[in-house]
Amino acid sequence: MVRIAIAVEYAGDAFEGWQSQSHRRTVQDVLEAAIARIAAHPVRLHCAGRTDAGVHATAQVAHFDTPSVRPLTAWVRGVNSYLPAGVRVQWAVPVDEGFHARYGAVARRYRYILQESEVEPALLRGRVGWFHLPLDAVAMNAAAAALVGDHDFSAFRAAACQARTPVRRMYAASVHRSGRYVIFDFHANGFLHHMVRNLVGALVYVGKGAHGPQWIEALLTQRDRRHAAPTFMADGLYLCGVDYPARWPLPEQGRIIALPRIPLL
Fold this sequence. Notes:
With about 260 residues, the chain is α+β, with helices and mostly antiparallel strands. It has two domains: about 1-105 and about 245-255, Alpha-Beta Plaits; about 110-240, Alpha-Beta Plaits (2-Layer Sandwich). The protein contains five helices and ten strands, in the order βαββαβββαβββααβ. The relative contact order is 0.19.
């Protein structure tokens, strides 16, 4: 058996999440079907992070095992020829049996892109979040600084989250403006269910002036989801890559930070 690691780019609004479902309209379902056609046997994919419906990825990392001998180009161009629009394999590399896309990951990176405009976007609908009032990116960036470090993120955890602990280590969190777009970046050793969308929702409350930057630190201390802001829309959320130990030197270090160009950005 050979273990193959792949990086996958997909538009989340074209699918109903990553994880396989009976209706077969998920990213995992279409990828497994396409890979099986090249491998000539059923395959099971294991991914770094099971994204929700509407969440996109520039570099989702996954792996599968196969006894079939194929050139690496077959796992990229060959698989892509059987995939629907909205999802593509970016690269494929052999890894040893100790590699696991999910359990071997040491950190993940997410980016949220929000359009600030009076009118909801039409051309970028589903690809960016949206808020109708002016936002103070400087205040939001100051608030995001409180997220860095080891924290109990219970205030930003979905009720359905199945993680054994709400404690996560945030390596970096920042907010900056690029024209009418506000960019949120998060890098942590792991994320809870809806954690990024809940963080964005809280930071938007700071940005619109409903709370000061110190509110984020207060929410961390309270550890109570009921006191935080509502979950923000999935539209502008992108999984931008996954970090692994140096023993697995993946292409581009397992991540692709650059996102598709946004018109007028």
